[in-house]
Task: structure prediction
Amino acid sequence: MNKILKKAFFSSNVVYFEVEAPLIARSRKAGHFVLVKVGTHGERIPLTIAASDPVKGSISLVVQRVGVSSTKLCALNEGEYITDLVGPLGKATHIEQFGTVVCAGGGVGVAPLLPIVEAMKKAGNRVITILAARSKDLVILEEQMRANSDEVIVMTDDGTYGKKGIVTAGIEEVLLREHVDMCVTVGPAVMMKYVALLTKKYNVPTMASLNTIMVDGTGMCGACRVTVGGKTKFVCIDGPEFDAHQVDFDEMQMRLGSYKEIEREAMEHYLEETGSN
Amino acid sequence: MTENRATTRNIPWREQLRKSITNKERTAISRVHMHELDANYRNHNNEEVNMGLTLEEALTEAKRCLDCPNPTCMSGCPVSIDIPGFVKNIERNEILEAASILKQTSALPAVCGRVCPQEKQCEAACIYTQKLGKEAVAIGYLERFAADFERESGQASIPACAPNNGIKIAVVGSGPAGLSFAGDMAKRGYQVTVFEALHEIGGVLKYGIPEFRLPNDVIDVEIENIKKMGVEIITNCIVGKTITYEELKQEGYKGLFVASGAGLPRFMNISGENLIGVMSSNEYLTRINLMGASRDGDTPVLSGKNVAIIGGGNTAMDAVRTAKRLGANRAMIVYRRSEHEMPARIEEIKHAKEEGIEFLTLHNPIEYLGDERGHVTTMRLQKMELGEPDESGRRSPVEIPGAIDNIEVDTVIVSIGVSPNPLVPSSIQGLNVTKWGTLVVNDDLQTTIPAIYAGGDIVRGGATVILAMGDGRKAAAAMDEYLHSSNC
Result:
């Protein structure tokens, strides 16, 4: 049982939680994730840690409301408890002084990108952060990103804030302008796929942090498997970060849809039951 | 131990009991039959298939045991349970005494009575099998009977524990190895804390073995007993991740037992294995058994109509019978050897057949085909025949050139084994692992770090509940000795 210390809405469907987890707050590193379960019969869902406060003994999570499980989680309020929370899991991000690093995040992928930006900056890199969202009100963590980046470029699909265009346009602008030693990308599979295609063209090494379906998250079930460089890898143990140029994003995208139908029906059922339709 | 057992064999009531009926009369009794739920009823629900023995049946079955002076059955038991000792107590209707004898050696008798491959262990070594050419004494059924009787009586005895010695011991994993180690160390007076990564206690007993074979209530009572012995169990905590070994040492823990169990599922690396609908038996069973998918859980599961399970072990049988229960029209076992070579318990194969499971033996998948959305639709199977025996002594399957079957499927569950869980070995520096990923241990189950012992699947790579429990007991004895000699 982990107490929710703080809850805030980043947008109507994106919720920020600060959760009591003293051991994890102490041991986690950039790139690590946790598994969260709400209720006795809840589902285990992986969430990358956005920040932590070892003194306060808390970690921060950013959750997008999509299906039944994330909706149940987002419905929890300050002072309430998350039934089960375990971590930190996965391998920590490989951080070193690369030189100039472009960190590109889209949607709620911006949250797990934050600790990577912080760590890259701390390691002495020049960090250029690209934040992408559909429109202005979906841009998250801008302030924190600015505090840890040498430059922040905001891209919105509809041009309501920053520059109009998708994340790759922002990256390409930088690549055309200056030499980049490393790129890190976190976001939807399709976005990462196009980031990888672009940076490959420019020969910039790129890491992608993958968020796949998991059940136990501790190296047991294999639900999270992806193909990297023609070989099957497990995101929970071998990842979550991989060489983006080697990841089969199409397969990953396909596998993310494994339970789409069942989940849609479950959501309809849930909305009917809770009367929140 | 042997001496002790010989002494107990000669106590007056046992001698009298032996003389009460002649061996000829004993051997004339035929082996009891287990009551089972009707196959067409049970293959739609999760109720336990085996219904247990009645008291009368147990008393009669116990009479069959000859109380041999040299009980070979015990040599067939990985933890050397005093088999004649508990069986003779059943015969004289001292069932609680029988249960207490079981608990001296087994932390989980109700579990072992249900899931041990008795036909390959104690019952294979029974004098009936060895010398008389008859069916063995139903040792497994009797073990289950005694444990269930005690549980249902509400008079479960808590094994005597030595006074608390104040020495803190940590255990990684609450499966059969971890629990039996914890129980044994508590008996020796240690202050034991078990750290479990999942949200549930019990490891494979909970996430792996379905309730129709091992009800959760049965496990929970055994777990409660271990807690009553003073063992503390902390869920959602991964040693090496949530809390490091160094931190445990700082908190005063003097020993660590790693029983982190199975890990990454093996796949065959054939085309189409990452299609939607193809998954490991670990994933399938965890969704259903641990997460309650298809029942009251929020976790989804694909309940296919044409389901194939690849493999012939107990887990494969569990998965295929689960698929049938979730409403599959065709639930198939695909196994590359013949039924004779199947590693599953004979009873599981029998139950599966009764429930309408199809057996495609001497078939091996070579490819899966999918539709445009990436859902698996077809498996391509290479037909095999048996060739010469291989290094395992089993006749190895050889391809029949050109003989390929295409079979329609919407779910494929790959159950060809697992690698050890890499989480703990990779998180504690100084632990040596083999090329298979198992932890390197000596004969005492001590790892390359002296205060860390290990047992179960993390050492064996994939074994049975009873072997894991045996490791727990052995490691407890060895660690106890180590801690005394190192003056902790």
In short: Chain B has a mean pLDDT of 93.
